[in-house]
Amino acid sequence: MPNGIRAELNGNSGIVILGIFAADMAFAAKRLPHIAETLLGSDFKLGPGGKGSNQAIAAAKAGGKVTFISRVGKDPFGEIALSAYAAAGVNASVLQMEGVSTGAAFIFVNEDNGENAIIVAPGAAGLIGIEDVEANRAHIEKAAIFMTQLEQPLEAAIHGLRIARSAGVTTVFNPAPAQTIPDEIYALCDFVVPNEVEVAHIVGHAVETDDQARAAGDILLQKGAGCAIITLGARGALYHTARQSEFIPALSAGKVVDTTGAGDAFLGGFAAALSEERAPAEAVRFGCATAAIAVTRPGTAPAMPLRTEIDELLSSS
Q: In which residues is substrate bound (predicted)?
C-alpha cells in the first residue's frame, strides 16, 4: 500500500465525487473544420457528460455507492443530468441554479479512429465553491473514497481533499484538464491519476516510453503523492509507488468506436474496486476493463458498462 492508503477504508464503502456535469454534444466527422469553414458531419449525439459526472455514473454502474457533488442550471440540460443520476443510482447532491446555464461540452469525434477533441464550458458548475464542499462535509467524512478533478474551481477541489484527508478518507485526484496547480495538493492525495498528456504538463517532459512514465511517476511521488497511476491509452496504465512499479496492460472488448470518456470510465471503475478494499493494482486492472468496454460504444456516460459486463471481461482476459 502506498503511504496514506487505509487498508480498512475506515469501515466505509461509499464514494463521494466532486466535479461538473456538462451536456455532451458529440459531432463525428473526418476532421475539425478550419476557421471560417463549414464541414458536414456524419453523426451527432446529445447526452450527459463532464468528468466528475462521468466518473460518478461509471462508479455507480460498476457497483459503487456514489454521491456526486455539483451544480447545474434549471434548464433542459440540468434535467438531463438529474435523470442520468436517477437511472444510474447516483445520489445527486446537486444544486440547481436559476438564471445560469448548465455546463456543456463540444466534442469532436474522428469518425475513422474514434479519437476526440473537447471544449468545455462549465456553466453553473463553474460556480462550485468551498460552500458546496462544506455543505457536503458529512458525506465526505463518512466516505471510503473521495475523488475530484479540475473542471470545477481549484479551491473547491483542494478544500474537499483537505476534509477527506483530515477524516482519514482515501483520496483520488485526477489533475484534468491539464493546468498549473500548486504542489501542496499532492500531499493531500493517496492516488494521483493523470493521463500521459496531463502528466507531461505537470512534469515538463513527454511520456512516450516506459522509462519516461516511471520518471514522471517518481516526480509525482516526490511532490508528495502516495501513489501515481498514469493512464497510457492503448498501452494500459502504470501503477507506481515507492515500493512497486508495474505496467498493467490495456484490455480489449472489441472495436474502438469512441475514446471520449475513457479516462473517466477508468477512474470510476478504479474507485468502485478500491471502495471494495481490492488491492490498488487489482483496482487498476478493474479500471482498465471498465475503460475497455466504454470505448467500444459511442458517447460518455451512456457508454459506461455495468458491473456484470466488467466482471465478464475480467474473467475472460
A: 22-24, 50-54, 151, 264
Residue 45 lies in a domain: no
Average pLDDT of the chain, as a whole number: 94
**pLDDT tens by residue, 126-153:** 999 999 999 999 999 999 999 999 999 9
53 known member of a binding site: yes
Residue 235 among known ligand-binding residues: yes
- Domain hosting 227: range is 11-20+50-95+128-316
Q: Is residue 89 part of a domain?
A: yes
- CATH classification of the domain holding 225: 3.40.1190.20
Q: Give domain status of residue 186, yes or no.
A: yes
Catalytic residue among 210, 211, 264, 311: 264
Q: Give the contacts of 190 (CB within 8 A, at least 6 positions apart).
A: 2, 3, 4, 5, 170, 171, 172, 225, 226, 227
Q: Is 236 marked as a binding-site residue?
A: yes
Indicate the pTM of the whole model. 0.91
One DSSP character per residue, 241-265 reads -SS-EEEE-----S-----TTHHHH
Q: Using CA atoms in the order 75, 81, 85, 87, what is the torsion angle rounded to 10 degrees?
A: 90
Note if 43 is an active site residue.
Answer: no
pLDDT of residue 10: 52
| C-alpha dist (Å) from residue 174 to 99, 195, 231 | 30, 9, 11
The response to whether 23 counts as a known ligand-binding position is yes
User: Is 195 flagged in the annotation as binding?
Assistant: yes
pLDDT digit string (tens) for 168-219?
Answer: 999 999 999 999 999 999 999 999 999 999 999 999 999 999 999 999 999 9
In a domain, 104, yes or no: no
